[in-house]
Amino acid sequence: MVAIAFRGLTKVYGGVAAVDNFTAEVQPGRVTGFLGPNGAGKSTALRCLVGLSRSTKGRTRILGKRYPQLKNPIHHVGAVLDSRGFHPGLTGYQNLRVLASIGGLPGSRVDEVLAQVELSDARNKRVKGYSLGMKQRLSLAAALLGDPDVLILDEPANGLDPAGIAWLRGFIAEQAHAGKTVLVSSHQLAELQNVVDDVIIINRGKLVASGTLEEITGGQTLEEAFLRLTSGVTS
Amino acid sequence: MRLLAAELRKLTYQRAMWGLLVAAVGFAALGTASTPVIFDQTSDGLGFGTLEDQGVVDSVYANAISGYIFAILVGVLIVAGEFRHGTAVATYVAAPRRGQVFVAKLVASLIAGVVLMIISTLGGILAGVIALEFYPEAADPSVDIFVNTSIAAVVSGAVLGVLGASIAALLRSQIISLIGVLIWLFAIEPILLLLFPDQGKFFLQGLITAIMALDVESDQFNFDTANFTDPVSATLLLLGYALVFAIASLVVSIRRDVE
Fold it and tell me: What is the pLDDT of residue B159?
């Protein structure tokens, strides 16, 4: 069974197709890079995948089911879609504690994931005092709460400094080593090349290419292959 | 139950909610305590009568429910805050069945509104008791006013909490929702009640006042509680408003994309 499937996904906003008949699969236990220029439809496809947006046509599946059909999804899927998604007046712990209680998880699990993303020292600090990098780590901690098998990460490197990007690379490698399925979208192609097994490229809402890293790059770097496949459209 | 517990946990974590509770208590206490002073210092209590009339003293205690404006603000903040801070994404990813999430928010708003109103009304009644101690000529209040005010506090807290949450879900903007309900409650409704009392009595403040079954009138303000609806009809109409808004906002919340 594939971990994630997009089947003819189409999402139209105001007469314009942000995602157009997009079909792709993510295999279980592998790290898949989801690439595309800005506005290519990556975020829209991911939002349809987790039920935040309704698809105009087509369907999506995670672990064989529509996302809302997953029982207590926090235990199956962790998603980082918006680093802004925390209440600034609450501490990092409080923000995660609310999400943990939705999933029926104890407060001790919040402390575990905060330690995993190295935010234990900022546990009781209000999120409005967090740097962008700290917010990204908090988003990753939120995604890990239910120890899910599938991680969906939309631009997790946004706002990270070089040390943060190196940390993120180690984080993704660690998740892959633990046998998790990771679907990660990013513009950090050089970094992605070191961690992904498979690649999906989308441009103007349509699938451009998908396959293993070797199949996609064909001896080139991931960046060179990406620019070739997207006709030089720079991100 | 998990969703409701999460919503209530979120509520207790937010300083703004505690601030609104304190403000509601202060508003109700000030409104109640200042009423006998105003009645005493104006001729014929602005046309309502003097503190020697039991109906006037009852109307002093009726001001104890004036914190209801804060119940609607709590409802607005519970829902609009999710859009303002972008937390709706994390909430709906953790709990993708939107109908259940929104019902939990409505129930949390109802509970928060009722709790806020019970506490602020008690504060207002206490302030009224203390203030009236300074007026030995004041009549004793009726027993009914405390019962009716308590009922009005619970009903108005529940209804306005749900209305606030529903309005925020329909408008999705915290600022527009807050400004909208403030203008409605502080400007439009009082004007309607003053200029068109036969129609105005069917809106929120007229109905909440009706639940308390007061017996006061003032020609100066074109105000006579005898023209208000009976308490049972007023309660049912308020609950009807809450139900209609709740259903409309639930439908919209289920259908609309989460941004």
Answer: 97
